[in-house]
Design brief:
The chain contains 13 helices and 17 strands. It has about 375 residues and is an alpha/beta fold. The chain folds into 2 domains: about 5-115 and about 300-375, 3-Layer(aba) Sandwich (Rossmann fold), CATH 3.40.50.300; about 135-255, RecF/RecN/SMC, N-terminal domain (Glutathione S-transferase Yfyf (Class Pi), Chain A, domain 2), CATH 1.20.1050.90. The strands form 4 sheets. Strands 3-2-5-6-7-8 form a 6-stranded antiparallel sheet, with helices on both faces. Strands 9-14-15-4-16-17 form a 6-stranded mixed sheet, with helices on both faces. The longest helix has about 35 residues, at about 175-210. About 40% of the residues are buried. It binds adenosine-5'-triphosphate. Adenosine-5'-triphosphate binds near residues 37 and 303. It comes from Mariprofundus ferrinatatus. The RecF protein is involved in DNA metabolism; it is required for DNA replication and normal SOS inducibility. RecF binds preferentially to single-stranded, linear DNA. It also seems to bind ATP. This is DNA replication and repair protein RecF.
Length: about 375
């Protein structure tokens, strides 16, 4: 069974950051917004992300989303997911409310899993330049999305780790501790196995991205060789050490690295290499979503040409052209885009968006405001 591409037909934004009212109509393939610094390009990608996650990718609780001197913002999107779907977001004072098909969303996870959106943005590139815990969280997010039961195992594993810590402090009997130590191993083992499987698959996909990155990227996990018996033994033998310093052994401590030419890309990669690596990882992630969830996510690439020379810009566009996902991206004014590329380019200025090919503008209809406010 082939995967279905998710895409957005239209985004309407009102009172979000610098925007008064903007309507953005998108194609199912590549879409590029070009504009001056500070014109609000990233904000439009942020609007798409807000619909899927209810929060920004720049900062989890952003107090500046509402336009200065306004009291709330609205976003309304027409999506295509098997059939047409409407998603809207209203926000005020750091709080957001999501609505799907006009109904309040109770569990945000349901929306982010049904409307997958992957973002690569200079403000939020934690996979490459963040701490190890960021990469671990990213990897675990992916295994939770793809493999059944992992979320439950994760929850139970962490509960067992905490409970053992509490009991160690209360100096309870060895038997009591052993119950929780067995649980740690029981729930920890499938997490380790799922991570190993996911890393193998991601690395195979990253080899296919070598045309983009020049040298293959490699994701690796620095961890002990887990084995049920040794793990349990280790937990039993190191109780007093764990009581002093906490449990520093297990999937919650393992380190995820991304290597490029045998070195860690976060310290050894150039800015351009890091940019391409981050996009290649999004491509691999996209393929994993198609494989396991049969849905092709929408890709948001902010400042997509950042730090890339002309050859690499061309290489990136050639790669994106062959990607089955809808791609929404931004670039600053002055970029030159080859005319043979099948890409919808829209220029953003204080008057809103204007199609670069036809020069036509799209403005918000009177009734839209009402619909958006009602949706919110
Ligand atoms: N709450 C707010 N009210 C009004 N304006 C805001 C608010 N928050 C941010 N801004 C302004 O909105 C704009 C947001 O810009 P955004 O980051 O979307 O621009 P951009 O076109 O992506 O810029 P760049 O090319 O520099 O990355 C900036 O000019 C910023 O100063």
């Amino acid at each position: 069974m082939s995967a279905t591409p998710l895409y957005i037909r239209e985004v309407k934004v009102r009172h979000l950051r610098c925007h008064d009212e903007v309507v953005w109509q998108c194609e199912s393939g590549m879409n590029l917004i070009v504009g001056a610094n500070g014109s609000g390009k990233t904000t439009l990608l942020e609007a798409v992300y807000l619909m899927a996650f209810g929060r920004s990718f720049r900062q989890a609780r952003d107090p500046f989303l509402v336009k200065r001197d306004s009291d709330r913002f609205f976003i309304h999107g027409q999506w295509q997911r098997y059939g047409p779907m409407n998603l809207s977001v209203a926000g005020r004072k750091g709080k957001t409310t999501l609505r799907l098909q006009g109904r309040d969303v109770q569990r945000r996870k349901d929306v982010s899993e049904s409307f997958p959106v992957l973002v690569e943005a200079p403000q939020g590139r934690k996979i490459i330049d963040g701490a190890s815990g960021e990469r671990r969280r990213w990897l675990d997010g992916l295994i939770i999305t793809c493999f059944q039961n992992i979320a439950t195992y994760y929850e139970r594993y962490l509960r067992a780790v905490m409970q053992r810590g509490r009991l160690l402090r209360r100096r309870v009997s060895s038997d009591e501790l052993e119950v929780w130590e067995q649980q740690i191993v029981h729930y920890g083992m499938p997490i380790v196995q799922a991570r190993e499987k996911m890393i193998t698959e991601l690395n195979q996909l990253l080899i296919e991205e070598v045309g983009l990155t020049e040298h293959p990227l490699m994701i690796s996990m620095t961890m002990p060789e887990y084995n049920q018996q040794n793990w349990l033994l280790r937990l039993q033998e190191k109780r007093s050490e764990d009581l002093r310093v906490g449990l520093r052994y297990g999937p919650h401590c393992d380190v995820v690295n991304i290597h490029f030419q045998q070195r860690e890309i976060r310290s050894a990669g150039s800015r351009g290499q890091q940019k391409l690596a981050a996009i290649a990882i999004k491509m691999a992630e996209c393929a994993i979503w198609s494989r396991y969830r049969r849905l092709i996510p929408v890709l948001l690439l902010d400042d997509c040409l950042e730090a890339l020379d002309r050859t690499r810009q061309q290489r990136l566009f050639n790669r994106l052209q062959n990607c089955p996902a809808q791609i929404l991206m931004t670039a600053p004014e002055g970029v030159e885009i080859a005319s043979d590329l099948n890409i919808r380019i829209q220029l953003l200025d204080t008057q809103g968006l204007c199609d670069s090919a036809t020069g036509s503008k799209v403005s918000m209809q009177e009734d839209t405001t009402v619909v958006m406010e009602e949706a919110a």
